[in-house]
Amino acid sequence: MLVLEWIGIGILILLAFVATLFIRRAVMAGSGTIRLNLRVSTMLDGRGWSPGFGRFAGDELRFYRMFSLAIRPKRRLSRDGLVVERRRRPEGQELMSIPADWVILRCLSHQAPVEIAMAKTTVTGFMSWLEAAPPGAVSSFLATH
């Protein structure tokens, strides 16, 4: 009887895992989803990048880690106050985790500076989303210094 209980528990865990994957896929399958990398740590130069998906939801860009079972986003970037400070290409150690033809954007926000990497074609859509802020919102696409 004890073996059957363990088999039942194992099946329940497997079903919960599969259900989580399907729910996560349903969230990602909606419109406004892009592939991007977010820098979660700046302790080592060129390291700390986390691959994932971004989803535009109103005035937020929600970042979901690729290798996570979490249904909730890891980070939310509000369009209000988000400014692109500069663009650059991946260099050095970053080329191991980011494709060479991608663009890295250093953004300033109310929360903290953040670096995101995405394909060149995705940058155009991201900048359009930033510029499409409602009147009166601070969302210039390039900071002036």
From TrEMBL:
Alphabetized InterPro entries for the sequence: DUF2550
Which key words are in the record? Membrane, Transmembrane, Transmembrane helix
Q: What is this protein called?
A: DUF2550 domain-containing protein
Looking at the UniProt entry, the stretches that span the membrane are 6-27
Which source organism? Phytohabitans flavus
